[in-house]
Known about the structure:
Blueprint lengths: L3 H11 L12 H4 L7 H7 L2 H13 L5 H17 L4 E5 L12 E2 L1 E3 L7 E3 L3 H5 E2 L19 E5 L6 E3 L2 E10 L8 H19 L9 E15 H5 L2 H6 L24 H16 L4 E6 L5 E6 L2 E2 H21 L2 E4 L13 E9 L12 H20 L1 H8 L2 H6 L12 E2 L1 H13 L2 H4 E4 L3 E4 L20 E3 L4 E3 L9 H27 L4 H15 L12 H9 L8 H4 L6 H9 L5 H55 L2 H7 L1 H32 L4 H12 L1 H16 L10 H6 L2
Bound molecules: adenosine-5'-diphosphate and magnesium ion.
Amino acid sequence: xxxxxxxxxxxxxxxxxxxxxxxxxxxxxxxxxxxxxxxxxxxxxxxxxxxxxxxxxxxxxxxxxxxxxxxxxxxxxxxxxxxxxxxxxxxxxxxxxxxxxxxxxxxxxxxxxxxxxxxxxxxxxxxxxxxxxxxxxxxxxxxxxxxxxxxxxxxxxxxxxxxxxxxxxxxxxxxxxxxxxxxxxxxxxxxxxxxxxxxxxxxxxxxxxxxxxxxxxxxxxxxxxxxxxxxxxxxxxxxxxxxxxxxxxxxxxxxxxxxxxxxxxxxxxxxxxxxxxxxxxxxxxxxxxxxxxxxxxxxxxxxxxxxxxxxxxxxxxxxxxxxxxxxxxxxxxxxxxxxxxxxxxxxxxxxxxxxxxxxxxxxxxxxxxxxxxxxxxxxxxxxxxxxxxxxxxxxxxxxxxxxxxxxxxxxxxxxxxxxxxxxxxxxxxxxxxxxxxxxxxxxxxxxxxxxxxxxxxxxxxxxxxxxxxxxxxxxxxxxxxxxxxxxxxxxxxxxxxxxxxxxxxxxxxxxxxxxxxxxxxxxxxxxxxxxxxxxxxxxxxxxxxxxxxxxxxxxxxxxxxxxxxxxxxxxxxxxxxxxxxxxxxxxxxxxxxxxxxxxxxxxxxxxxxxxxxxxxxxxxxxxxxxxxxxxxxxxxxxxxxxxxxxxxxxxxxxxxxxxxxxxxxxxxxxxxxxxxxxxxxxxxxxxxxxxxxxxxxxxxxxxxxxxxxxxxxxxxxxxxxxxxxxxxxxx
Length: 731
Ligand code: ADP
Ligand code: MG
């Protein structure tokens, strides 16, 4: 056992679970202790400050300087008492992940050289100007100007990580355009709140606010860190660019919900322990389908907070993995041939009166409201299926979609038989049949009673990209490494726009003298018809579906850079502007960033692949080939020609195969490098990304195919890169 690979495998096998000492307390006793939440605010802020701040948070108003000063003073006291020495504005640039720049609280009391004191003013809390020149802005912010600023989002509570007070902020250019995910997300939440509240008031005038809820399910892989270190492709790209399938992978389905390996169990406990300190309601943990794949999910919450918590959890997961001798893979498709990782976004709307708008109700009024929302969502998703797909599309996620239990790259909606039946019945009935006004009991719905509990697991379609699951929609196409905001702001925006249109249509009918119920019913009936093409409960992988989807006019584009085009078509611009989420300039700028990011990802992968084949794969294959040649040569020394030829037949066949494969690998790699050179000369981001997609990326699989074949024939002792069977089954 000569090479690093064997040492890494040996070490990994020897590793024991790290003991995590569970706190001697109930979870509820330390839950949220690192967060400046309501409980802490009441302790550290005056009653008056609390009152004004609460109003600011609830109404989404801006913060004035005096209030900011009061809040900053309380926050500083709390932070210092809890060990913080630094603070940072914590924001979500378009790079995915979060960004922070730490500053210490210290300031000179007066002139330089005088004693230092801890300072934290309202000005520092409310706004900061990070040297943001290197964050992607799609040309909005000239790099030399570097003028962007971050501003506190008071609806996201501040928290402490290690010694640093983190203040969730939006990140905006000086001319007001969003350079981040949080700004448009907040705008979309506002839009859907406004539009949905108005629709709710048809049914219950006491509704004053509608919340968007998100419950994410985070899938991930864990790899032993020693093995990870010997795979440059994992280190540099987050995924394996080569590796033959393991003889055993997920076909026995013995991993899903199986007993969690002890080293992993300890890791999960540790994440939960950390997460609870941040008030993240982590609820579920289990093995996923692929070997070494796992999932965790919290209890759902208000979308803005849930997004922050997901980002925080991803960073906790990364850090904690190191304590346990693991590396965390959040890439959507780290391994070919087995499941990739998604982040199902369970999404719903709910009122301030406690009604879930996607939960079938107990009364006919509630059920009409439920159907109203389901149907409007259906139509919104239908009209904007391309946009929704663009919102989840990345270079990484493209590898995941369309295989191994991931949804296909065509957006459709799964409703299940019960809701489908209700909609079919509604479509077939007249308003007189559907809405029966009973003089004594009020309104009756002449449709089949919607069962209260729809959470029937048999009626689930695991590969549907957008599925109704009883009291929410599950958007399953979202990728594991993504910032959920991209999907959530798009979904909330299209639903808001749709609800506005719905209200207009209903009001017009009412103005013409129709009763409110009948007007609603009649509009819904049209919508049910119109949105039919988006409903699909069958197998999303079949070729028939692809053909059918195309016939139905659903977006079937598969090229990632081309998919982004939909963001800037006239309908999307109109939609986003009408709900106040993006300006045209912002949409164009963000697409520039998307194309640039795409190009860079493919470019890095191409380079890593080229390096690996030239300095790992080919040299190893030649070494083995030379051993075989040596053997053949010796055969001819010992035996007569005829016998030697017979005895070395196997050797010669392998020698030839190696030569052939090496020559293909070499010529394809050279061609890939040439293709890259051509692409690199293109200035325009969109054209460049398309060139990378069309001309560079196709080489990846062609090269890999031959590398994986070599892995099968070359002496295992010589092979330097850990194989799938080791990466995935050693823990
Ligand atoms: P699954 O069976 O889909 O794997 P999980 O229990 O892993 O379900 O995750 C489901 C997620 O959906 C959880 O985060 C849960 O809190 C969330 N969820 C449940 N009800 C709602 C709802 N009404 N709105 C949004 N999210 C919800
Ligand atoms: Mg789950």
